[in-house]
Specification:
By secondary structure, the protein is mostly beta strands. The chain has no helices and 2 strands. The chain has a two-stranded antiparallel sheet. The termini are far apart.
Length: about 70
């Protein structure tokens, strides 16, 4: 198992595949496969959408006094 950002060890999804394309709202395989994940899957790091970050908590001046 490699720790490279270009490998994908989790469940394969066509939305992360290098051979997929968006047609409206649907993800379509450019290789012609109709499976949800196939043996031609190639992970594309740039198609992965990162999770939104949590907002930072706000502090008052009293939070830092003893």
């Amino acid at each position: 198992m490699s720790n490279s950002i270009f490998t994908y060890d989790k469940e394969k999804s066509c939305s992360y595949c290098a051979f997929s394309a968006l047609r409206g709202e649907a993800v379509v395989c450019t290789k012609g496969s109709e499976k949800q994940s196939c043996e031609q899957f190639r992970y594309d790091v740039f198609k992965r959408k990162p999770h939104k970050t949590q907002p930072l908590p706000t502090f008052e001046k009293e939070d830092f006094s003893i």
